[in-house]
Amino acid sequence: MSYQIIVCGSLVPDPLQTLEPVTGPQGPALKNEMMLPSWLDPWAGHALYEAARLAGQHAGSKVWLVSLGPKAKLQQVMMTVAQKVPFELVALDGSAGGFTDASETAAALAEAILAIPGLDLTKLLLFGGWESASRGAGATLQIVGERLGITDQFQGVDSLTLEADGSLRILERVEGGKHQVSVCSAPPAVLGWATGSLPEPRNNPQVGMANMRGIMPALQKAKPSPVSTGDITFTSVTLPTQTRTTQVIKDASPEQIAADIVAWIKGG
Amino acid sequence: MAATDTLPSLQTLPSDQLRALQWRFADRYDLAMIVQSVRPIARGPVARLVAQGGRNTHEWTAEKNALLAIYDESGITAAFLNPEFGGFIEGPKNLALALVAFELSWVDAGAATCSLASNLGVAPIHERGTAEQVAHYMPLVSPPGPGDSREATRVAFALTEPIPFVGVETGLLSGKMRIVEWEDGKEPMLHIDKRGRFITNMDFANVVTAAVDSADPRIKGSCIVILEKTDPGSWDAGVPTRKMVHQLSSTCDPVFNLKVPASRIVGGYTVKDGVIIPNFSHGEIIEAVFRRTRVTVGLMTSSKLLSAIEPIIRYQRSRFRGGETGTPGSPRYDLGLQTKQDVLHRLIDVWATGEAGAALGFETARLFDRLDPLDREKDRLFAEQGISGRGVLKAFARIQQDAIDCVTLQRQPEAGRDQARLDLLESNPLVQYAILDAQANVFCPACKLWNTGYGATVMREAVSLMGGYGITEDCPGFLPHKWMDAQLEATYEGPEAVQRRQLSVTMTSGLFLAQFEGWITDLEALQAPGSGACITASAMRLWLWSLRHLQNATDVHGAKLYQSNRQGVTFPLTDALCWLMASRQQILDTVELGRSGAADPSVADELPGTLAFFMDLCQVQAARAAGETARICSELVLGYLAKPAVACACCADAAPGVDATALQAFSGHRARLDACLYGFRLAKDRAANALTSVMIPEALDYPV
Ligand SMILES: Cc1cc2nc3c(=O)[nH]c(=O)nc-3n(C[C@H](O)[C@H](O)[C@H](O)COP(=O)(O)OP(=O)(O)OC[C@H]3O[C@@H](n4cnc5c(N)ncnc54)[C@H](O)[C@@H]3O)c2cc1C
């Protein structure tokens, strides 16, 4: 059986950067947000690599990455992401900031997915991150699923096995470091990935060159998709109260790291 | 104050897109991708190995060796190759390889050397190999992919020999070839006897391109010959060099005693009267090879300088944090050492030098990308016309004048110039080749010489800004390693003396100087106030005047000043030219950034502040370059004359044998130059100030 795997994912600022909330003309934002280097949202990244592996195992399958983000920034991020695994990009030009309304973003994504030529719900696996590194609401993917009428939804997924009978065996994270095992009889399904089990593939410019042939035109025709903070009013936006102190320590053992964290939690 | 407060100021460190615009590859996603593919290798496995102390051994360890496979997987190894041989970049690859070297050297230039040395090894075949040699060896160099069981072919280039033979002087070859078998109608078999010194990649190379001379009356002259590890005879990779730099590359003193067919002579040979005549001497081949690979070396040092900015700013700002005095919000806490002007000014010098070097290096790489197709076309045309050997030189002597005419006509107002002749010259590939070649002959040694030599000096400044930390292994950004490494970059692939020697000849070519004059007028006409263009243009005029003067002048004893064995005159003039070329290119790139950046929305937020800052850096660098030029020109123009009775420069025209008119002209140029310096120090203050507010990441993106 072949699958259509659609991964929703966009960009987030490089976490090593100084992230300072400020109030911009459109509401809250990060200082110098457009100037900071960005990455593919790591949760969506895990989803993408898992999607590529599954597509590779099932002949005739195909992966799309549907991304809503500022077009120019998306292009930069694609210089890296395109080198990881083969996929086709569907780009939407709009804000990927951490303060946009999840329902507006989801509506735009759902519309773009429905417009993919040859979309076949019986083969569709809708992937994404179970949350976003910049937008931790964990709601976007669920709403996209609802809008597409997909009610089999799984969140915090670490493993998906596509069984010979066409069913999906899914491991979702639950409390206590355990997984809940579910079996879903057939696509379509929504899977919000946690980390999965794959390492980040090394950049391979050969893969990149092949992908870019489709990605550049996709970026050029990216539809403007203005998304905003919607009806949400942010009364205040601050960083977590603790001071961010980056320490660089070589060769710390897991025990030491754990002890440091415990000391910190206890107010050390 | 209020007025300056509203000026745009540097907000963040330059983004990749901004760099791509500035270095003019924003339209090349293949290049943007190779940057993104090399960077995680440099800042990942390479940086981790350095941080773990992987550089503290001369031996080629398993950990160092493991990097080779990583270079293969990430496309670094194949970047040199054409797509038909397993590469992925179409067309000339000088800029691509320059970017690879730049990214790797940001962390460790030994890693860059290791990956690029294989290109150097195979470059003789790439540049001058026969069709069969190219078809055989280039695909071998392509790394084996998944399921491909062949052993990776890695190449070394063996030119340098044990003392007293090949070093700077490449003519003193002790490596020899003689004929051991030559059966009728069969390929002659050669015996190769070659010892190398300081040969990169030897620990794992299985193919070597070696320079050898004839020790047999039946072979004429020298050549480069291809050796394979499996050839009959002995292949001794030799002991590792006890080098203190670039330890992530392998360097040994190998000894080869091998029997190889004459078909391994790079570029082939002809037989005349029973004598084998190689089609290319070793000198001709190394010329073609080095002029390309030296560019990447120049960029290695510039990359280090630019890589030093972020760790130094972080060190400066956090220097007093955690103490009892400064509390968050106080200048001592927030700015630390940055409350002291000197550290800011010195860091601006480091940054400006890095920018100028990068500008010069990348322009040189782009120049070779433009030159390469013309080079091939020239070879094709000459072959078609049966022109070879000395005939090529003669043909070029004829083309020189056409090329000068072309350059001159291009500068004349359209109305009234001989357009038909210009069109003819512009469509003549040989003329266009000659024009670019004259530039390349200066750009290449200039960027190798200045970027590495002066870069090493400035790298020391960077180290000193880190205090005692700067000379420990714990220094973030590996700065002390980078300082020492810069000295190797100034040495290998032709030390500074070689570059100066070459420049002292190429910079006097009429075709180059005709272009140089045009550059001066272009800079003067550049509508870029605050870029330092007028400073550099005036310094270029001073240099040009001094060169022409010195070419005809004699010293107090009547001995000619500008001549090849008077390196005390010729060499400093080459240094001055390098300063000017770097400054000019930095200005041009900055102006280009302003132009192309304005049309690119992705840098809209960043552009105004960064552009203003880069303009200030241009001024700082222009003034520095002008100062060096003025010093050198004064020393040379005045320094060989008799001291006047009254020992004062302004009275020099009273001295015997001095051409007073000439000296007046010289003083005029100097005065004009001085007048251009008004206000430049304010630019330095502004740039220094920007360093106190630029946002930097929380931590370096590679380990320490
Ligand atoms: C780590 C490392 C890797 C290397 N890799 C390779 C490699 O892969 N393949 C290879 O073939 N070689 C390699 N080399 C050799 C390198 O290219 C030579 O060391 C370099 O060309 C200088 O030669 P030399 O050391 O014999 O210096 P010398 O020739 O002894 O020169 C010493 C100094 O004398 C002065 N000098 C010499 N001649 C002149 C002159 N005519 N005019 C003015 N001044 C002069 C200069 O100041 C010069 O720097 C490597 C070297 C090192 C250290």
Please supply descriptive tags for the structure shown above.
heterodimer, A: 268 residues, alpha/beta, Rossmann fold, 9-stranded mixed sheet, globular, B: 704 residues, alpha+beta, Butyryl-Coa Dehydrogenase, subunit A, domain 1, Butyryl-CoA Dehydrogenase, subunit A, domain 2, Butyryl-CoA Dehydrogenase, subunit A, domain 3, 4 domains, 7-stranded mixed sheet, two-stranded antiparallel sheet, 56% helix, binds flavin-adenine dinucleotide
Explain the overall architecture.
The complex is a heterodimer of chains A (268) and B (704). Chain A has 268 residues and is of the alpha/beta class. Chain A has a single domain (4-224), classed as HUPs (Rossmann fold, 3-Layer(aba) Sandwich). Chain A is 28% helix and 25% strand. Chain A is built from 6 helices and 13 strands. Chain A has helices spanning 42-57, 71-81, 102-114, 140-147, 205-220, 254-265, and strands at residues 4-8, 11-13, 21-24, 27-30, 38-40, 62-69, 88-93, 124-129, 153-162, 168-173, 179-184, 189-193, 223-224. In chain A, the strands form 3 sheets. Chain A has a 9-stranded mixed sheet with strand order 11-10-9-12-8-1-6-7-13, sandwiched between helices. Chain A has a two-stranded antiparallel ribbon with strand order 2-5. A two-stranded antiparallel sheet of chain A has the order 3-4. In chain A, β9 and β10 (168-173) form a beta hairpin. In chain A, α2 (71-81) runs antiparallel to α5 and α3 (102-114) packs across α4. With 704 residues, chain B is α+β, with helices and mostly antiparallel strands. Chain B has 22 helices and 11 strands. Chain B has helices at residues 2-5, 16-22, 29-51, 62-73, 94-105, 109-128, 131-141, 282-307, 309-318, 331-334, 341-384, 390-411, 419-426, 429-464, 479-489, 496-506, 510-525, 533-552, 567-598, 607-639, 660-676, 680-691, and strands spanning 155-158, 176-181, 189-195, 199-200, 207-214, 222-228, 233-236, 251-252, 255-261, 269-272, 275-278. In chain B, the strands form 3 sheets. In chain B, strands 1, 2, 3, 5, 6, 7 and 9 form a 7-stranded mixed sheet that branches. In chain B, α6 runs antiparallel to α7 and α12 (390-411) crosses α13 (419-426). Chain B starts with a helix and ends in a 13-residue tail after the last helix. The A-B interface holds A 14, 16-18, 31-32, 34-37, 70, 72-73, 75-76, 79-80, 82-83, 202-206, 208-209, 212, 216, 243-244, 246, 248, 250 and B 11-12, 15-17, 29-30, 32-37, 40, 51, 70, 73-75, 78-79, 88, 328, 600-602, 604-606, 695-701, 703-704. Bound molecules: flavin-adenine dinucleotide.
